[in-house]
Amino acid sequence: MKSIKHFSALLAIVVTAILVMFSSVNFSGHYIWDGEIYSALVKKYLVTGELSSLGPGDLPLWAKDIPQQSYFNRIAYYWAAQVVMLIYPLHEKFLFPLLDFLPFTVAAIFLYLSCYRYLSLSILASFFAAIWLLVLPAAKVIYQVVAHPEALCLMLMSVGFYLSLGRHHLAAALVLLFAMLSRESAAMMSVYLLLHHYWQQPREPGLLRRYRPQMLYAGSVFAGLAIPLCIQQRSSLSSFSFFNLVIETNRLHPLPYLLFNFNILIIPYVLGFWRLKRQEQLNHLALWLLSILLLSAALDWWRVLYGNLHFAVLPLAAITIYRVFRHQSIYVFVLITLYLASFPGKLNWTQLKIVTIWPYCVLLLLFIAQSYREKRCTILSDQVPQESPQLFP
C-alpha cells in the first residue's frame, strides 16, 4: 500500500510540473529580462563550444549598468544546454523550456524523497512540500523569463541535499559544486550542511575522520567560487559593487518582495522555527543572514530567496501544518496549494509590489483556532499529547 502511495505522489508531482510549465512558459521564443541574456550566451556557446568566447559584447545594451560577471559565471547552465543538444537537437523554442521543466521536476522529486526519508515528514506532508516548490509564484517567474539557470541550480541543490542527508558526503559535495557553477549562491546550502553535520555527527577519533564532511563542503564552496574565476577570469563578487542601484530600485518594496518568495508559507515556517532544536535554529538563522547579505547584490528579490531557502522553508512549513492540524491537515494543505496556484501563469508585475494581507490573516487564524481547540480538548480529557518528532532528528 505504501509503495502505491509513493508512486501516486511521484506521478502527481510530474503531472503538476507539466501543468505549471504549460500554464506559465512562453513558447513564442520571446525572452524577457535575464532570459534575453542567457539565451544569447547559450546560443553562442553551442556554436563556439568555448566559454572564453563569451564576452561583454554579447550582452544587450540595457544590461550595461549591471555587473557583467554575474552572467558569465553560470558555467553549468551552458554545459547542460550542450548535453541536451547532444542527446537530441532541439530548436531553441523548446530547448530553454526543457531546461526549466526537467530540472524543476527532478528538484521536486528529490525534495519529496528527502522530506520522507530523512526529515521525518509523512507522505502527505512530503508531497505538498514538493508541490509548493513547483507552484509558488517565484517558480512561475522563472518560466516566464524562459532562459535562466535557476531551475538547474534548484535540481542540483535538491539532489545534493538528498545525498548529504543520506551521508553520501563526497557525492553531495560534487553535486553542490556543480550547483555553484550554475548559481554561486548555492554555496549557502554547503554552509548549511557543514553546520548541520557538525552538530549531528558522532565524535569519532581523528581530526580528518571527524571533520571529513565539513572539509568536503568547505572545499566545494572554495572550488565552486574559484573555477569560474580560473576559466573566465571573472568573479561574480563584483555584483556587490552596485549596492546603491539595488537600494534605489528596491527600497520602497522590500517587504512585498520578501513575502513573494514563499507567500503564506512563511507563517507555518516561522511557527515551526520556534519548535526546532537550538542548533537547527542557528543553522536557519545563518541561512537567512547570508540571504540578506545576498539581497544587497540582487535586483530580482522576488526569486532570490526562493532558490536559496526552499530546502529549509518548505519542509518545515509542511511538517508544522501536519503536526498542528493532524488528520485535518489535508484540508489546510489543499487550501494553501489552491491559493498559490491561483496566481496567474503570466503574472502582472505590479503584484510584486502589493501584499494581499487577508490570506495571511486567514491562515494565522486557522492556526490560532486549532491551537485553542487542542488545548481545550486536552483539558477536558486530562491527557497530555505526545511529543511530535523533531525535524532533522
Describe this structure in words.
The protein is an all-alpha fold and 393 residues long. It is built from 19 helices and no strands. The longest helix has 27 residues, at 92-118. The chain is globular, with a radius of gyration of 21 Å.
Radius of gyration: 21 Å
Q: Overall pLDDT, averaged?
A: 83
As an assembly, this protein is single chain
Number of helices: 19
Q: What is the number of strand segments?
A: 0
In the predicted model, the low-confidence regions spanning at least 5 consecutive residues are 382-393
Helix content: over 70%
Q: Give the helix/strand class.
A: mainly alpha
Which series of helices and strands comes N to C?
Answer: HHHHHHHHHHHHHHHHHHH
The largest pleated sheet is described as: none
Give the overall shape, derived from the CA principal axes. Answer: globular
End-to-end Cα distance, whole Å, is 26 Å
Strand content bin: under 5%
Secondary structure blueprint with pairings:
Blueprint: H1 2-24, H2 34-48, H3 69-72, H4 75-87, H5 92-118, H6 123-135, H7 137-145, H8 150-165, H9 169-182, H10 187-200, H11 207-210, H12 212-232, H13 243-250, H14 254-262, H15 266-273, H16 278-295, H17 301-325, H18 329-341, H19 357-381
